[in-house]
Fold this sequence. Notes:
Elements: E1 14-20, H1 30-37, E2 44-50, H2 57-64, E3 68-74, H3 80-94, E4 99-103, H4 105-109, E5 122-124, H5 129-140, E6 151-155, E7 158-161, H6 183-190, E8 194-197, E9 200-202, H7 212-216, E10 220-222, H8 225-239, E11 243-246, H9 255-267, E12 273-277, H10 280-285, H11 288-297, E13 299-307, H12 311-316, H13 323-336, E14 339-346, H14 353-369, E15 373-374, E16 377-379, H15 400-403, H16 419-436, H17 444-456, H18 463-471, H19 473-477
Parallel strand pairs: 1-2, 1-3, 3-4, 4-5, 8-11, 11-12, 12-13, 13-14, 14-15, 14-16
Antiparallel strand pairs: 5-6, 6-7, 9-10
Helix pairs in contact: 1-5, 8-9, 9-11, 14-16, 16-17
Amino acid sequence: MSSPRSAGGDLRRHKIVLYNPMAVFHTMPLGLLAIASNLDATRFDVRVIDARISGDAHADVLREIDDALCFGVTMLTGRPIGDALNILRAVKANRPEITTVVGGWHPSLFPIETLAEPSIDVTVAGQGEATFSELVEHLANGARPADIAGTAYRKGDGIASHAARPLVSMDAFPPPNFDLIPVERYFAFKGRRQLDYIASIGCNYRCAFCADPFVYGRNWKGMAPGLLGDEIERLWRQYSFTDLNFQDETYFTHQHRVAAICEEFLRRGLEFTWAGTLRADQGVRLPEETWKLCVRSGLRRVLVGVETGSPAMMKKIWKDTTVDAVLETAAKCRHYGIGAIFSFIVGFPDETDDEIEYTLALIKTLRAMSPQFETPLFYYKPYPGSPLASAVKDQVPRSLDEWARFDYVAGAAGSWVAPSVYRRVERFKFYNRMAWGAETPVKRPLQRLARWRARNDYYAFPVEKVLVETFRPSEALS
């Protein structure tokens, strides 16, 4: 390992290469920005490479690692693991001595198991800012990873593992340095000047299908409103974004903080729209004056994880909210002209046909309430670490290569979902999507027929579905 000092005795800047694997969405790589921004810029020269927007990301990586101290990858469970493995193996083939580090959701769930992959040297679990900073300081000083909280790594013939660090206030770390990424390219890929931002980390809730309680211990930390206001104003003046997309797990956790942030935006004269995550029960508890304040400050859309329309299933998955709360929050959104994405899941282990029908009925109700409401429907996939996953643990992949073929985004259902249920849900998804979208002269006949089918719950002989999927496949998936 090279010395941190050059021949002349001056401190060297060590290059750190960070990689975001290929995925189907273009959210800015906020996790990588968080750990990169916490490094001493006089000591470390960070290069962020994002496969989603790079013309030839693998070539970029192999060029940059020639003189790099270490190579880091964020690893999301599912398909992105495939690209992560390809680049990690290529990096090790080109520079066997370089230290490779992986962090993110999957290593946080499987810090030790992930090290079964020979191209990975160190895993980082949980909130990574302090852990990664300490790790690269060790490497810069010529030391091996040792006794660093939040890491796991090989030690002799075994593996040394240290528990993840407790969640720390985001105010303790520098704000993300967006100069490390080509912000304008993300705007271009998104088709709008939308800036992504994380203003809080963690989640206080216990949903049985989710890995958050396992990773964050049902803890939550948010930026102070004043500091957030300072940073958002600076970024708005620098990048002239027109929409701010909060990527928090639960943005509306504390209503007084939400109101204070709105007041910061208004006081500073910031002119943009914004979107955030909202639980249905939080929407019910949000005071009318805060709803109005949110709208005045630019709130355009909320994302509400409903998951199911069945009261019984709500209890089974420990959602800790109600269908009535969903409908009340939806009514609030409609009243204030706010768009909403109400996301749903079907195919839970032991879910009955009646419970699925409750979900489909609630989706139809919400879609009919407002043209600004969307209701994406996904199949349950067992996220490791969650209590519900234990019911189908024999279906959960073991190796990273198997996880790379386990797609959380695509429409495949688990093997425990009956073919008849899958067929019913797929037809429902198609006609529900077609029925309630904004009408156009070209689509109007199909939309009206789809609306009739949805209202009458009649999906037999889906000729329109076959035609659209054959001649307009992209439209069928939109």
